[in-house]
C-alpha cells in the first residue's frame, strides 16, 4: 500500500472574522427583546428593488445556536476543508465586562474544536445605531490603567492556548479602532511587558484600518502596532454608485457633518424613499485589484458579499456578488503576500458568519458551498468532501 502524498500547504494564512453573537444574552434581551440574536434580523430580509437578493438564509448549518458544541465543530470542519487556517473572534471587553463570550469561553475550556483562533478587540461603544439611534448608548467603551491591567491578564491566559494563532511565535491580536485608544503607544508597551513578564511572547499587534480611520497605515504603525489590517468593505473604496439614490446618499455623506449624516442615513425618511447605497461587486473588486502594492506589514481583507439591509433603514448593498469575482479578488490578495515569510502571509476574510450584514462564507440557500469552494481554489487546496 502506498501512502498518499502530503497535501500542499495553503498559499496564504487565511483567517476569517467570526461573530460570536448567535446565542441569547441578558443584555440583548433587555435592549432588543427576549431571545434576540442576529437571526432575529436576518429572517426579516425582503428585497428592496427588483433583483435584490434578500433574505440571506443559512443552508448546511441552519439557524444555529453557538452554545451547541456540535455547531462550533461543524463550523471548524467547513472552514478547515476550504483551507481557512483560523477564526478571528470579535472580542467584546468593556472595562472588565465581557459580552457574547460564552462560545469562546467554552472553546477555551473544552479544547474543542481543535481549530486555531485569535481575537479582534471590537473596542466600540454599543448604541442603537441599527435602528437609527446611534447616539442612544447601550454600553460605553471606556479605558483606564487598572482595566488595561485586568484586560491583558485575561488575554495572557488565552494566549497560552496552543491553538492561538501566532506570527513568528507571537500571539496575533487585532484592535478594531486603534485611534480610539487614549494612548495606544503606552498601552501596547505595557501589554508587551506584561506578556514577557508572564512568560508569553510579546504579541503581534495589528491595528485595523476602516473607512472611519483618521490615520493611514504608517500612522497606525507609528502608534506602536506591528501591522495594519485593511478592513473591507470601506466606503472610501466604493466605485460610482449604481443608481441615483445611491449617488444621493454619497453626496449626503460628502457634504454633511458626520454626526448629521449618521443620523439621517438611518432615518425613516430615507428608508421610506428607498435611498440605499448600491454598488456593483465586480466594480468594487476591480478597484481593489488595481490598487498599489501593499507595504510589508499591511494585510489585505476580502469579502464575499455585503448587504446590511436587515440592519439599516438606508442600507449599503454591494450586489451581484459571485464566486468568480470573489476568487479573482482572493487570488490577488494571496499574490500580494506571496513573497513574504510564510508566517506573515496573512489574508483576512470578512466574514465567516456576519449574516445580518449579508457577509458570510457559511453556505446559504442560494449559493451553497460555492464561496468555500472558491476559497479553497484560491488558497490552492482541494476542498475536502465532508461526510
Helices and strands, in order, run as EHHHEEHEEEHEEHEHEHHHEHEEEHEEEH
Shape: globular
Query: Helical stretch count?
Result: 13
Helix proportion range: 25-40%
Q: Largest beta sheet: what is the strand line-up?
A: 1-2-4-8-9-10-12-15
What percentage of amino acids are in beta strands? 15-25%
Structural class: alpha/beta
For the sheet with most strands, the description reads:
8 strands, parallel, barrel
* Radius of gyration using CA atoms only: 20 Å
Count of β-strands: 17
Task: Output the keywords.
387 residues; alpha/beta; eight-stranded parallel beta barrel; three-stranded mixed sheet; 13 helices; globular
Amino acid at each position: 500500500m502506498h501512502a498518499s502524498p502530503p497535501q500542499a500547504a495553503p498559499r496564504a494564512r487565511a483567517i476569517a472574522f467570526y461573530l460570536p453573537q448567535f446565542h441569547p444574552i441578558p443584555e440583548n434581551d433587555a435592549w432588543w427583546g427576549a431571545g434576540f440574536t442576529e437571526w432575529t434580523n436576518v429572517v426579516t430580509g425582503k428585497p428592496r428593488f427588483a433583483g435584490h437578493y434578500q433574505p440571506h438564509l443559512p443552508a448546511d448549518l441552519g439557524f444555529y445556536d453557538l452554545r451547541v458544541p456540535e455547531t462550533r465543530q461543524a463550523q471548524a470542519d467547513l472552514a478547515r476543508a476550504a483551507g481557512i487556517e483560523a477564526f478571528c473572534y470579535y472580542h467584546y471587553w468593556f472595562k472588565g465586562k465581557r459580552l457574547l463570550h460564552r462560545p469562546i469561553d467554552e472553546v477555551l475550556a473544552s479544547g474543542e474544536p481543535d481549530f486555531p483562533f485569535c481575537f479582534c478587540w471590537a473596542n466600540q461603544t454599543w448604541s442603537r445605531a441599527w435602528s437609527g439611534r446611534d447616539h442612544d448608548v447601550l454600553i460605553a467603551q471606556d479605558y483606564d490603567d487598572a482595566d488595561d491591567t485586568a484586560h491583558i491578564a485575561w488575554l495572557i491566559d488565552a494566549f497560552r492556548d496552543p491553538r492561538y494563532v501566532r506570527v513568528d511565535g507571537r500571539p496575533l491580536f487585532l484592535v478594531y479602532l486603534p485611534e480610539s485608544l487614549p494612548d495606544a503607544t503606552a498601552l501596547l508597551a505595557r501589554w508587551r511587558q506584561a506578556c514577557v513578564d508572564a512568560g508569553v511572547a510579546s504579541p503581534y499587534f495589528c491595528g485595523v484600518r476602516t473607512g472611519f480611520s483618521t490615520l493611514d497605515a504608517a500612522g497606525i504603525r507609528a502608534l506602536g502596532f506591528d501591522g495594519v489590517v485593511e478592513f473591507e468593505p470601506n466606503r472610501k473604496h466604493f466605485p460610482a454608485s449604481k443608481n441615483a439614490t445611491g449617488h444621493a446618499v454619497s453626496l449626503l455623506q460628502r457634504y454633511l457633518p458626520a454626526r448629521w449624516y449618521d443620523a439621517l442615513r438611518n432615518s425613516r425618511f430615507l428608508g421610506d424613499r428607498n435611498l440605499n447605497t448600491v454598488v456593483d461587486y465586480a466594480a468594487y473588486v476591480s478597484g481593489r485589484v488595481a490598487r498599489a502594492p501593499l507595504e510589508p506589514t499591511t494585510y489585505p481583507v476580502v469579502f464575499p458579499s455585503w448587504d446590511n439591509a436587515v440592519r439599516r433603514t438606508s442600507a449599503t448593498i454591494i450586489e451581484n456578488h459571485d464566486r468568480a469575482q470573489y476568487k479573482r479578488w482572493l487570488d490577488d490578495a494571496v499574490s500580494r503576500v506571496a513573497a513574504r515569510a510564510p508566517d506573515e502571509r496573512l489574508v483576512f476574510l470578512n466574514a465567516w458568519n456576519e449574516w445580518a450584514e449579508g457577509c458570510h462564507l457559511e453556505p446559504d440557500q442560494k449559493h451553497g458551498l460555492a464561496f468555500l469552494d472558491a476559497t479553497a481554489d484560491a488558497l490552492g487546496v482541494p476542498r475536502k468532501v465532508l461526510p
